Write the structure tokens for this entry.
Amino acid sequence: AEAGCTIVCTIHQPSSEVFDLFHRVMFLRLGQMVYNGPITGIVEHFAAQGHHCKPNYNPADFAMQKLQTLSDEEVEPLIAAVTPSKGGSEIEGMGQAEEMWDSRSAPFKTQLALLLKREFYQFIRDKMTLVARYGMSVMLALMVGIVFWGAGDKWGNDDGTEVVKEVNNHWGALIFFSMNAMFLAAQPLLLVFPLERAVFIREYATGTYGTIAYFVAKTLVEIPAAFIQQIIGMGLCYLMVDLQGDFMLMTLSLTLLAAVSASTALLLGAVTVRAETAVNLAPAIYVPQILFAGFLVTNDAIPVFMRWIQWICPLKYSVSIIAVAEFSESRIPDNNSFASNASAALINQSNINRDSTWFYAVILVVLFFAFRTLAAVLLARRSKKFE
């Protein structure tokens, strides 16, 4: 309040000290307004209708006692004194209040700073979710590391035997890393955001903050959290699987994938009412990505009228970046032409261009902003219905 922010709250039978902190007060009886104005005018308002307050008596206690004991007929004059008999239910001074509300809207930087602080505290205070999120990353990373132990440095024999098997194991590890990043990033938001949405709608409808500030703050907390999660998971897998590619490039690729996956989860949360509905719809968004990513079915085998779907599948681009980094010519032993040929065949079969790493990264960034912007627009439109 001292910073110029309007504070609205409900309170029942406050003490004199607490009541004196209020500037304005509103009394209701059965949904009808009995008084609306400064606290200094309460005694005068009731006295005008024949209800006198004793000297040195708490006006709040006096008003509450009267509203609890007076009959409906006795309260009607108090209601009539507040609400005009003609002209509808417009409250006197409402236009001035709206002007005051608009003039006191916090600037964008203030909204962003406060929302960022709230998002950060919500993130670190939810200890169970925090432990589950990073604990799951560690557990799955250890599982993958054990299953694919040393697969990153196994290229088969120089005579060509075991080459296909080893390269496929290597390829399978990369695919699992990417799928793991996609699902782990989406799951928390699918469960939590539909619940947070009710708070957003209420606060947005009252003009507390804007959609852009809300989503920017959420993004600034999510991205570092996703990066740390991928550092932990990828770090364990990189060492245990003995991968050969650029560690930071692969980690950033998975972070981008996680960010896009989180954006699609926000989009689902924006269009659904309950968390259960969002979770049930999630397979329709994430499972097809496995089909259209290019590592299960070649692009030529997909019907022409469905091939466009691959362009909006972030999993495809993340896998492509990791595959280029891991199966580059410099990572394969010079004396094993069979491994080089098998890797090249795998890259070509998956429709991956070795020279398009930056293009794949840009597409991921575009998908991130597209899905998140769409979620913000849909959520804002829904919130306007409550204004």
In short: Residues 85-103 have pLDDT under 50 and may be disordered.
